[in-house]
């Protein structure tokens, strides 16, 4: 197997080499290596020759097969060539036939081409004619289009087309007469369009603008009335919005979209077409004459202004300012003015301030308003006593100001007119208040008011500014003040409400000035009407009337601070709408009431003092009496009776504080009189001291009855306690004098502890002087005198005085006794108050 494997590969390789060598052109050269290899391996060429023979036979067989195949193909090719030859003959005949036809066709084509050239020349002539006709038709069409747009009032488009027509001139049609006429007329047509554009603007001024001013103004007024109503409804739902008025930033933020989008020139009832203005702008910008349009537009607007305010200018020139017969005629003029100003502003804004700038609209507004305000003020003055017309004017001017402010006009001058109107309304309201108050005052019965049931009490408490501190559960009950106090409080509430209602919607600026006017008006009513009337009544000669009106005065005085609080802190929406947390109203009425009250008290004090002085003339103390009286003297009884009559009858309804002050002042005066009586006498018996003490105790005994108050439920018990201590203080000095005189000597007085406890109001000089007046002292003094002394010595002389003081153990003092103690009224008044 091994030798076979070794031989076969070599044999195969040699066969391949032989095959390769036989097929090669230089096979002899190729066989040389093969032969060498064969000889080297086998040393014999037999195998090689055998293989060469086999290869030869194989090649020969192959060549023979190929020869037979080539002969078959050659035979087939000859047959095919024969057939092709036959076909070529037929084709040649056909080509000859086609060539004949082609020649005939060429001749026909030549004839047709000549005809086509002839027609082409004709077509070119027709095309040239058509082009010329089309150019003419195009010019005519453009000219007709210009006139069509002109008749349709589309002047800007007409001018655009006219410019295109002027730029589209063609030399091909310039030789025609009608085209020359058209081109020559184009400048005239252009000027016609420009003139008609401006004429259309003038017609717009006359028809759309001027004739609709009143209607536009009326629509704006109706819109702002709806706006005010809508804002009032929102304020009712949210009271925190009350201080904010229409046109404030907050109100604008809350404003309904439908109200925001209102256009006075385009709405359900008014449609003002601004197309002529826009066309004019475009036309004059196109012809580069916009400045001319601006001047002409402004001049035309000024002419309309002059026509509008002609009656006003005539009124100013003739000084006949009362040109409006009623508020309706004024309203029509204001409608027109508002529409005129707003339309001017809107046109400026819609044209992006190209046609008119903001300053021009402001200047136009100022030029009219400065002339209108004097006439408006005169019309306001005409209704100085007419509430209804003043309220109507407030609505008209207020909405007018709101409209102008909404479109950013400067309304300061008009707002001053509103302030003037408000002042006149206050004046009218004050006169009406004064008239009603005078009627109340004339009809009033100066008696305390009687409340029958809880309902009446609630009504009184709701209307009065006085705060009732006590709870009243039993009826009927008598209140200290009279009916005029309740009626005046109610009238004052209505007065304040009417004032705030008047300024509630339209008075946005100068809030401090508004509040000052309100405060002054309330002060004026309180001082010049109420207080003036009370002052007159207090000066009356009828004691009951004086007494009751002093009570009313006290309640009015107390109510001033409550009225002030009502103005500053009331929860009433009408007042809260105008109130400012940073600005508080301060009334000066309280000081005026207190001054009059003090003056009235002083007047009563003087009256009581004069009566008491008359009584003093009838009182005579018998200091030398030797009898002890069992009852007070007649003069003292008369004094007590007088005091009971005046304080329990005439002054029974006086305010407790005033009555207490009167009592204190009266008894202070009486005590001083008693002291003076003691110090003025030179001789005092023991019996007269007992009688004097009886008189003093009688006077003290009537004090509790004099202090009784018929309507004392509104007073605190502390007032009574304070007055009791005050009366004890008044009589303390007199009681100490009586005790010292009853002792008859200064032994107890010399003891410092006893003196400070029992005689602290008596000075040493006064004590000595009092003891020297006693009968026992003077008897002792006579007994101690030397019998031979003939000269009478005055017991009050310096030497005797010194010896007496030495005798009682006191040194001489430079201090002299004061018979009239200083008045304690200021201290008592502070205690009582």
Query: Considering DSSP H and I runs of 4 or more, what fraction of the residues is helical?
Result: over 70%
- Average pLDDT figure: 82
Kindly state the number of beta strands. Answer: 2
Number of helices: 32
How do the strands line up in the largest sheet? Answer: 1-2
- Determine the N-to-C terminus distance: 158 Å
Instruction: Give the number of domains.
Output: 5
- Tell me the radius of gyration: 67 Å
Low-pLDDT residue intervals, each spanning 5 or more residues: 1-9, 710-721, 790-833
Q: Which overall shape is indicated by the principal axes computed on the Cα atoms? A: elongated
What summary fits the major beta sheet? 2 strands, antiparallel
Classify the secondary structure makeup into a structural class: mainly alpha
Strand percentage lies at under 5%
Folded structure, characterized:
- The chain has 833 residues and is mostly helical.
- It has five domains: 45-143, no CATH class; 155-209; 212-409, no CATH class; 426-599, Tetracycline Repressor, domain 2 (Orthogonal Bundle), CATH 1.10.357; 619-832.
- The protein is 75% helix and 1% strand.
- Strands 1-2 form a two-stranded antiparallel sheet.
- The radius of gyration is 67 Å and the shape is elongated.
- Residues 52-221 form the Exocyst complex component EXOC6/Sec15 N-terminal domain.
- InterPro entries: EXOC6/Sec15 (IPR007225), EXOC6/Sec15_C (IPR046361), EXOC6/Sec15_C_dom1 (IPR042045), EXOC6_Sec15_N (IPR048359), EXOC6PINT-1/Sec15/Tip20_C_dom2 (IPR042044).
- One of its GO terms (biological process) is Golgi to plasma membrane transport.
